[in-house]
Structures are given as structure tokens and as C-alpha cells.
């Protein structure tokens, strides 16, 4: 009896270590694979040129990724600017002000939103968001736009990432200890002051993680963005211009134009860039979390 | 019940004559329900000024709930239905037009377990001051120092005021929470078993604090430690299953308990 329990204990802990190792090795493996695949390109071009040049002429063997990087980051940041306040306020409202049944009712709604395939969001973006940006929002700001724009991409992305970010934020606020609320209110804070000064600080780690995950997810989103950003290789001058994101570049062109040498390798380098950006962003978010935990 | 209130009122009248103390808190027919469960049953009592009133009673009898009624922290629990009136300096705190934040600032609260706000030691005390609208850094710093000294914590933390309050020991945290409560200059201190999580020495520090504070504050203290109650109490309220069974001056209650339950409680508690 004792032996078998010990054995189970042993096996299960080994099994967990194996799973964990796998999880840790996977990104490493992907990273190495990408580096390996992009070496042909890297051996021909200087890294700084690949990253910072905006000249994208594959048939001339010129591969500058700067436009794609700028578009990707721009769309992602813009989408977070839209989704962060929405999610934060919704999470606060749902957990602190709304009646309990409402939160219970919203949970499955949020889960359904999360489960909708991104193509569907893309179609919705094409039919609703693109015309909205082209005909209403851009003229409102005195700009001209076809509608296929970074802003359209950002709106679609924001809507897509809301369920993810919101779910995480709901957990953060639901786990807020009652004693903290009591302590703050007892000192004469209003409910809003308590949320603003105590809850947000107490939950800062979770909140920042939620946004970090939202960022990574938004940066990597492909289809829905690809359908609405216009896919024009250029450095966008405003959010009403078209752009071309890194995931869009890869998805649109992988397996095509094999006649151009290094093209395949260039796409892999694009994937590597995406990977590196995500790593950098995660490191930055970790650092912010570390700083906020120090207090 | 009514005779109890009468005797209570009488006893209070006599103390009024002797010590010239007006009641600060008048609790009148307070009932608390939670989904059909009757937590506080027609609780009426008077809490005299500048005295330590000790709330005694077995676990679950409603002591914490009564404290939470006093500064309306019951608002936090939508399940709780509160009725009756509680007058503090004559104002009914359940009055809808009353500014609840101002009422709460009349009271400092110490919880069973200390709960520092998730910020630095300094900011824990500055928090209430800033809520009061005090912005001047010099005034805030001076008050932080004053109240930390008041609870004998200053020397231990003066070199790390900007570090997280959560890293203090539990005893230090409890004193910080007391200082934080005192900083908003309350009239009343509500303390819910403030030394239950503390070692004997730290809890002595808190006790001594209370005795010192008595001249300036009205203190309502919940405790399970009978000896602590005897050391501190001027006035005792004994509760059982949501009701006030007996109350009055400490000496009278401890030396001449009327009800069987209280006699039993005092006997077992020894
Ligand atoms: N928010 C609440 N919702 C429902 N019931 C509650 C709530 N708070 C307290 N109660 C109930 O009210 C009763 C009194 O609880 P209370 O915490 O006031 O007891 P207490 O006298 O402080 O006990 P202890 O000495 O153990 O701290 C208990 O039966 C408890 O279950
Ligand atoms: Mg209690």
C-alpha cells in the first residue's frame, strides 16, 4: 500500500517535471528553429538593414522589415489603448457594482466571445468596422481613408482580446480580500477611492499580466487583422493609413513566390522578429511586475 | 428585555453624574438579518465617552457584526439587512443624507488580523490624511511621525518608511493599523480582537496603548481573553446568540453577573 502510494507519488512528480520541461523547451525549440531557418537571409544581409530598412523589394533581393514591424506594433498598441480602459472598467463594474446574477450571466457570454473563430471577427470587421472607419471616423477627424486601416485592425483586435483580458481581470478583482475594502472604507475612503487607490494597487500584478498576455495575443493575431488592415507595405503616417502586419505577411505569402531566392528564409525571419518582439514585450512586462511587487 | 434596558439606562445615568460622561454611541433596536438568519436581535445599548467598553460573548454571537454596524461596513455585504438606529454624537448613521465617509472617519477600526494597505508604511498612514484632503507634505510627514510614535512603532520603522508595510511583523502591522486609524483623528476606536494574532508582549503593547488612548478616545473592544477584558474594561456588554444579555460597569458585570449564561461564561473563561 505504502509502496504503491510512494510509487504513484514518484511517477506523478516525474511526469510533472517532464511536462514542465516540455513547456520550457518548446519556445526554445521554436526560437532555434526560426534562427536556423533564417540563417540564409542573415548570411546575405546585415541584421540592422533587415530590421530598420523600409525597402521591401523581394525580387531585387531587398528585404526591409521596418514597415511590418511598425504596422504590427502600431495595431497592437492601438488595440490595447482601446481595450484596456474598456476591460478595466467592465471588470470593476461587474465585480464591484453589478448585482451577482449579472456577473454570472456575463461569464458565459464572455466565454462565447472568446470562442468565436477569428475569421468571423474578420468578416465582421470587413462588413462593419472598415466602412465605419472609412465613412464616419476618419472624416470626423478630417482625414480621408479607405477604411482598410490600422484603426480598423485595432478595433477588431480590441474586440477580440476583450474576452481574454476581461476574464483575467475578473479573477483579479474577485479575489480582492474583503479586509482590504473594509480597511480602506473604514479610513473614510469612498468606494471609488478604495478601488482606485487600494484595489488597483493590490491587483497591479494581475492587471499588468493580463495586459501583457493581451499584448502578446494581439501581436500574433493574423487572419482577422489581415482582412481589414489593407496589407499595403508602407510606413503608416496615421492610424487611418493601411498597413501590413508581420503575421499577415507570413500568412499571405508562405508557400508562394518560391522562385525568389531567400523569400522563404525572409518569411522565417519575419516569424523570428515576431518571436523576439514577444519575448522583449514579456520581459518588459515582467520587469514592471517585479517593480510593482517590490512595493 | 425592557427592564434590562432600564437598568442599563439607570446605571448609565449614575455614571453620568459621577464621571460627567455623555454617551457618544446610542444603539437603538438594531436588527441584522442575513437570508432569514437573525444575526443581531433588537440590540440596544449606550456606549459612554472616553471609556473602554468591552464586548464579550462566545464565537458567532454577533460581536463583529455589531462593530461593523457602527461604521456601516455592513454596506459591503448586500446579503445583510440592517434596521434600527445608531446615533453617534446624535446623528443617526443610517440616515440616508449623512456623509458616510465622514462618519467612518470618526472611527478607527482594528480588525482581527491586521490588514495593511498594499503600499508603504508611510503611505498607509498618509492614506486617510489624503482622503481628508490634506495635501501638504510637511503636515503629512509630521503626522506620520506623530502617530507612529503614539503606537511605539517609530523607532522600529523610521529608516524604512518607504518600504512595503506587508513586510512588517504581524505585531508591527497591528500597531501600524492602529496608527493609521488614529491618523484620521477619530473619536471612537473599534477594535475587534486586536491582539488575537499577537504574542503576549505585543498584545501587552496594544493594551497599554488602549489605556493611554482612553483619555482622548472612546474605545469599543471585542476580546475573548477574559483577563484582558478585566484589565481594560470600564464597561462590559455581554452578548449571546445575537442578543445583549447583560451590560453595565465592569465591576458590576464581573462581580455580580445576573444571568446563568454569563456566570457560566465567566467561570469557564478563568
Ligand atoms: N456577511 C455575512 N453574511 C452572512 N452571515 C454573516 C455575515 N457576517 C456574519 N454572519 C453570521 O453572523 C453571525 C455572527 O457573526 P460575527 O462574526 O458577528 O460573530 P462574532 O461574535 O464576531 O464571532 P467571533 O468571536 O468568532 O469573531 C455568525 O453566525 C455568522 O455566520
Ligand atoms: Mg468576530
Automatic annotation (TrEMBL), chain A:
Keyword Zinc: no
Chief subcellular location: membrane
Record key words, sorted: Cell membrane, Membrane, Phosphate transport, Transmembrane, Transmembrane helix, Transport
Domain ABC transmembrane type-1, chain residue ranges per copy: 69-285
Any Pfam family matching the protein: BPD_transp_1
Recorded topology in the membrane: Multi-pass membrane protein
Molecular function GO labels: phosphate transmembrane transporter activity
Subcellular location: Cell membrane
Residues passing through the membrane, by range: 63-91, 112-134, 146-166, 206-229, 266-289
Coiled coil regions in record: none
One of the GO biological process terms: phosphate ion transport
InterPro entries: MetI-like (IPR000515), MetI-like_sf (IPR035906), Phosphate_PstC (IPR011864), Phosphate_Transport_Permease (IPR051124)
One cellular component term from this protein's GO annotations in UniProt: plasma membrane
Function: Part of the binding-protein-dependent transport system for phosphate; probably responsible for the translocation of the substrate across the membrane.
Family designation: Belongs to the binding-protein-dependent transport system permease family. CysTW subfamily.
Name of protein: Phosphate transport system permease protein
Source species of the chain: Parafilimonas terrae
Lineage: Bacteria, Pseudomonadati, Bacteroidota, Chitinophagia, Chitinophagales
UniProtKB/TrEMBL annotation, chain B:
Key words, A-Z: ATP-binding, Nucleotide-binding, Phosphate transport, Transport
InterPro entries: AAA+_ATPase, ABC_transporter-like_ATP-bd, P-loop_NTPase, PstB-like
PROSITE patterns cross-referenced by the UniProt entry: ABC_TRANSPORTER_2
Transmembrane segments: none
Pfam families attached to this UniProt entry: ABC_tran (PF00005)
GO biological process, one term: phosphate ion transmembrane transport
Keyword Transport: yes
Domain ABC transporter residue range list: 25-266
Cellular-component GO terms for this entry: membrane
SMART domains hit by this protein: AAA
Molecular function GO labels: ATP binding; ATP hydrolysis activity; phosphate transmembrane transporter activity
UniProt keyword ATP-binding present: yes
Name this protein carries in UniProt: Phosphate transport system ATP-binding protein
Amino acid at each position: 500500500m505504502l509502496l504503491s502510494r510512494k510509487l504513484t507519488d514518484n511517477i506523478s512528480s516525474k511526469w510533472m517535471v517532464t511536462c514542465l520541461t516540455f513547456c520550457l523547451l518548446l519556445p526554445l525549440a521554436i526560437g532555434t528553429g526560426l534562427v536556423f531557418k533564417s540563417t540564409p537571409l542573415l548570411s546575405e544581409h546585415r541584421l540592422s538593414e533587415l530590421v530598420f530598412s523600409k525597402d521591401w523589394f523581394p525580387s531585387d533581393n531587398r528585404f526591409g522589415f521596418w514597415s511590418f514591424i511598425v504596422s504590427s506594433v502600431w495595431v497592437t498598441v492601438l488595440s490595447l489603448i482601446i481595450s484596456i480602459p474598456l476591460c478595466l472598467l467592465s471588470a470593476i463594474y461587474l465585480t464591484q457594482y453589478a448585482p451577482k446574477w449579472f456577473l454570472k450571466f456575463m461569464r458565459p457570454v464572455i466565454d462565447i466571445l472568446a470562442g468565436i473563430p477569428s475569421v468571423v471577427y474578420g468578416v465582421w470587421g470587413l462588413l462593419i468596422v472598415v466602412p465605419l472607419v472609412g465613412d464616419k471616423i476618419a472624416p470626423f477627424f478630417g482625414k480621408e481613408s479607405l477604411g482598410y486601416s490600422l484603426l480598423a485592425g485595432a478595433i477588431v483586435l480590441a474586440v477580440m482580446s476583450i474576452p481574454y483580458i476581461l476574464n483575467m481581470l475578473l479573477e483579479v478583482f474577485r479575489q480582492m480580500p474583503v479586509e482590504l475594502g473594509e480597511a480602506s472604507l473604514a479610513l473614510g475612503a469612498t468606494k471609488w477611492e478604495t478601488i482606485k487607490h487600494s484595489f488597483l494597487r493590490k491587483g497591479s500584478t494581475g492587471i499588468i499580466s493580463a495586459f501583457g498576455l493581451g499584448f502578446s495575443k494581439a501581436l500574433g493575431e493574423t487572419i482577422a487583422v489581415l482582412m481589414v488592415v489593407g496589407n499595403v507595405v508602407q510606413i503608416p503616417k496615421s492610424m487611418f493609413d493601411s498597413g501590413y502586419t508581420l503575421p499577415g505577411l507570413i500568412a499571405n505569402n508562405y508557400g508562394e513566390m518560391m522562385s525568389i531566392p531567400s523569400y522563404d528564409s525572409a518569411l522565417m525571419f519575419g516569424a523570428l522578429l515576431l518571436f523576439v518582439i514577444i519575448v522583449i514585450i514579456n520581459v518588459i512586462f515582467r520587469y514592471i511586475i517585479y517593480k510593482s511587487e517590490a512595493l | 428585555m425592557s427592564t434590562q434596558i432600564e437598568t442599563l439606562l439607570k446605571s448609565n445615568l449614575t455614571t453620568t453624574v459621577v464621571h460627567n460622561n455623555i454617551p457618544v454611541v446610542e444603539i437603538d433596536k438594531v436588527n441584522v438579518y442575513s437570508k432569514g438568519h437573525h444575526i443581531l436581535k433588537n440590540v440596544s445599548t449606550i456606549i459612554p465617552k472616553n471609556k473602554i467598553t468591552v464586548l464579550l460573548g462566545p464565537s458567532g454571537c454577533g460581536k463583529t457584526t455589531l462593530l461593523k454596524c457602527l461604521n456601516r461596513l455592513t454596506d459591503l455585504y448586500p446579503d445583510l439587512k440592517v434596521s434600527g438606529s445608531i446615533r453617534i454624537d446624535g446623528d443617526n448613521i443610517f440616515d440616508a443624507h449623512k456623509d458616510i465617509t465622514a462618519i467612518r472617519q470618526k472611527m478607527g477600526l482594528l480588525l482581527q488580523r491586521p490588514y495593511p494597505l498594499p503600499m508603504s508604511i508611510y503611505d498607509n498612514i498618509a492614506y486617510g490624511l489624503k482622503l481628508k484632503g490634506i495635501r501638504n507634505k510637511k503636515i503629512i510627514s509630521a503626522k506620520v511621525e506623530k502617530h507612529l510614535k503614539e503606537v511605539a512603532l517609530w523607532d522600529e520603522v523610521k529608516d524604512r518608511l518607504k518600504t512595503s508595510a506587508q513586510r512588517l511583523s504581524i505585531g508591527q502591522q497591528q500597531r501600524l493599523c492602529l496608527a493609521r486609524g488614529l491618523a484620521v483623528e477619530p473619536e471612537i476606536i473599534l477594535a475587534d480582537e486586536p491582539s488575537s494574532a499577537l504574542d503576549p508582549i505585543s498584545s501587552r503593547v496594544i493594551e497599554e496603548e488602549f489605556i493611554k488612548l482612553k483619555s482622548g478616545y472612546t474605545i469599543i473592544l471585542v476580546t475573548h481573553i477574559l483577563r484582558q477584558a478585566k484589565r481594560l474594561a470600564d464597561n462590559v456588554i455581554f452578548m449571546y446568540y445575537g442578543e445583549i444579555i447583560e451590560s453595565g460597569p465592569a465591576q458590576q458585570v464581573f462581580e455580580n453577573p445576573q444571568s446563568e449564561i454569563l456566570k457560566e461564561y465567566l467561570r469557564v473563561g478563568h
